[in-house]
Amino acid sequence: GAMWTPRLLRGGPLVRRGSVRASSNEAVIREKVHPTIKGRRRFYKQVAVQALDGSGATKYEVQLDGRSLRTPGRRAMHFDSQELAMAVALEWDAQAPEGIEPATMPLMSLMSTWLDQTSQDRPTVITGALKFLPTDTCCFFNEEAPATRNLVRRQEKHFFKLLDWLADDWGVELSTTNGITKVKHEDEAVRRVEAMLDALDDAALTAVQCATMEGKSVVLALALVLRRVTPKAAEEIARLEEEFQMEQWGLVEGGHDLDRAASKVQFASTSAFLRLLDGEDGHEHRVHALRQACEKLAN
């Protein structure tokens, strides 16, 4: 089959090495997904994408010095999308000789999580995402006080848009709070969110999990994966409170700036992952599957 080898991107790697610090939950997943390679010296010279011979639609794999790339769980990593295979190959190609840094390989992370975790145990992934609902970022408003008035206005502007979208388009009526206790959502609303997650294909469910952990919000994750918000908007919404605090107190070098960079990478790569995987057709198919699931619940 045809072989493709990346030329180094003119701008260097997509993410500057060492510029990303994983948030705690993300780190836990990553330690599971990448225990084998973190900090290892780069053990390969050539990265290539190879078309696999076989009947039916062409599949692709990434090769490191001619050896097939596998998941950390040793599963075969075959791509239906040549574009996604190339993007993962570029992540490997951008690694420095002195050490591999999984935090700069978000697409590899998503592929591995998809094949090693989501495909093996969907119920656990769905339960994990649903656990964020009682503390969902988009359901928590700060208490109205002179010091936080501007923050509360921003939260109302952004959170209500997403909550209204879920209610109007998907029939999910979530509750909100301005206290610090967990939110008690109606059982029907939780059931509907569960039905939406259940109707997602494994790749999209993986994307939702990643975005949920980054934004501490299932609402925001669904909005990103269903293209209601852009990655840039998702980052802004997830970080409303942090950015507000920084306006008041200033930016802590080596802290806030790295969190901001990590957030940007996670939301952008989650979105890119699905676009590279199956583009417009995949998106339409996904929305259709979710509509059917919600209609079933209504009947």
Q: What is the beta-strand fraction?
A: 5-15%
* Domains, number: 2
Q: Regions with pLDDT < 50 over 5+ consecutive residues?
A: 6-26
Which structural category do the helix and sheet elements fall into?
mainly alpha
Overall, the morphology is globular
Widest sheet, order of strands? 1-2-3-4
The CATH superfamily of the largest domain is known as ATP12 ATPase
CATH class of the largest domain: Mainly Alpha
First-residue to last-residue Cα separation = 50 Å
Largest sheet: 4 strands, antiparallel
CATH architecture verdict of the largest domain: Orthogonal Bundle
Compressed to H and E, one letter per element, the order equals: EHEEEHHHHHHHHHH
Subcellular location: Mitochondrion
Main location: mitochondrion
Pfam families: ATP12 (PF07542)
Protein name: ATP synthase mitochondrial F1 complex assembly factor 2
